[in-house]
């Protein structure tokens, strides 16, 4: 389903992504199995999948921080006093 959505002209013009099963597993599998600090959601309407949403915190991706911070004011996360 993700490969089909990512390969559609409506999505591909904004998000140029590989659509092979290997690429989908590589790029989205970690959020499913908990090894990636992001959350992926499938939005359904009347039981039919209609949208994909991906959520992540800027500070969890050190290699992309500077690029993202240049686009928006991103406050540093507060240090938790809880273990």
Give structural notes.
The chain has helices at residues 2-7, 9-12, 21-33, 65-69, and strands spanning 38-45, 48-56. 34% of the residues lie in helices and 20% in strands. It has one domain. It is built from 4 helices and 2 strands. Strands 1-2 form a two-stranded antiparallel sheet. The relative contact order is 0.11. The model has no long low-confidence stretch (mean pLDDT 85). It is an alpha+beta fold. The radius of gyration is 15 Å and the shape is globular.
Approximately how much beta-strand content do the residues carry? 15-25%
Number of structural domains: 1
Most strands sheet: 2 strands, antiparallel
Q: Could you give the order of strands across the largest sheet?
A: 1-2
Class based on secondary structure composition and strand pairing: alpha+beta
Cα radius of gyration in angstroms:
15 Å
Number of helices: 4
Basic shape: globular
> What series of H and E elements makes up the topology?
HHHEEH
What is the first-to-last residue Cα distance? 39 Å
Mean pLDDT rating: 85
As a percent range, the share of helical residues equals 25-40%
Unreliably modeled segments: none
- According to DSSP, the number of beta strands is 2
What brief labels describe this structure?
single chain, 83 residues, alpha+beta, 2 strands
Would you spell out the secondary-structure blueprint of this structure?
Blueprint: H1 2-7, H2 9-12, H3 21-33, E1 38-45, E2 48-56, H4 65-69
Antiparallel strand pairs: 1-2
């Amino acid at each position: 389903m993700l490969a089909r959505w990512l390969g559609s002209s409506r999505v591909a013009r904004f998000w140029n992504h590989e659509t092979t099963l290997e690429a989908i597993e590589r790029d989205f599998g970690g959020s499913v199995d908990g090894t990636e600090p992001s959350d992926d959601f499938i939005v359904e309407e009347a039981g039919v999948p209609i949208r994909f949403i991906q959520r992540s915190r800027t500070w969890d991706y050190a290699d992309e921080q500077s690029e993202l911070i240049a686009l928006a004011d991103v406050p540093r996360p507060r240090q938790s006093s809880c273990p």
